[in-house]
Write a structure and sequence with these properties.
The structure is a homodimer. By secondary structure, chain A is mainly alpha-helical. Chain A has seven helices and two strands; from the N terminus they run αααααββαα. Chain A has one domain: Arc Repressor Mutant, subunit A. Chain A has a two-stranded antiparallel sheet. The longest helix of chain A has 22 residues. Chain B binds a DNA duplex through helix 2 and helix 5.
DNA sequence: CAAATTTCAGGGCTACTGAAATAC
DNA sequence: CGTATTTCAGTAACCCTGAAATTT
């Protein structure tokens, strides 16, 4: 940052939140890009690893990705051989999405990559402060995700 | 959120940060939209109010908006009569951007709007926790903005 | 000459809407 | 019938790059 930021902005909690998130997002996005991926890919693969094969709609609900964006991201993951997409024999509306062995390797790679990024992002904070921050953010997120 | 989020994600500090920021950003963006504005407008007007007339490049540096996006946002603000854009007589490369009386009124409106949004965003946190959070985020942001 | 400014054209990523076709 | 799923087309906002024209 070259010059001073208006105090009207720096005094806004939401500004601190969105701006620091933008910095974090930039670092994570660059790390993913270097590994040939982006955020949606990681979120979908992580969901498949944790919950197993699922329909696209279920994947979207788990990973907070819009149904429409799930389609596009899965197209890319499928083209790279990281997931299989087959029609559900029990429900003609659905596809069953499964992660492949290559997909699991890719996912492990991305976990490593994103874990390293955490250190760069939260470098200025002690372990205690990181815990304090994640606790507060966790409460914030939980509040806005319930309904 | 309908279904569970993978623990690989919820355990990532950067995920908590970017997701809670996304929620905050959505609330702020909706508030701005209801007032006929968006984030860039507010950031530019706040900069003009705090630092006075400035060139577009200086505005961009103050508000962390790319030179290219400053052009587009100023086009909109100018069309609405919120800023004046005149060539700098002392430097043929520059425009001098000035906020108008209507622009100041618009800015005050947006300050009210964005202040109200803070309460909705940080509702689950006590005043003490809000201070803790903003302190931690401020340190994070300061670290990534220096070089 | 190099550097700064404005402008335009364009892209990437996340997030979202509306509509169609299909199946439950 | 209403609801759910997949897919496509399109939009908004923010962030960023490259290049041209102009001026310092």
């Amino acid at each position: 940052m070259d010059e001073q930021t208006p105090s009207v902005l720096t005094g806004l909690p939401s500004w601190l939140l969105t701006q620091s998130a933008a910095q974090a997002g930039r670092i994570v996005a660059e790390s993913f890009a270097a590994a040939g991926a982006r955020g949606y890919h990681f979120r979908l693969l992580a969901t498949l690893v944790e919950f197993g094969p699922a329909s696209q709609a279920a994947l979207g609900r788990h990973s907070s990705i819009d149904r429409s964006d799930v389609v596009a991201a899965l197209n890319e993951l499928e083209a790279d051989g990281y997931v299989d997409r087959i029609p559900d024999p029990d429900d003609g509306r659905r596809n069953i999405v499964t992660i492949t062995a290559a997909g699991r390797r890719h996912h492990r790679r991305l976990v490593t990559v994103v874990t390293k990024a955490q250190d760069e992002i939260f470098a200025p904070l002690s372990a205690t402060d990181r815990t304090r921050l994640t606790t507060l953010l966790g409460r914030l997120l939980a509040h806005h995700q319930q309904y």
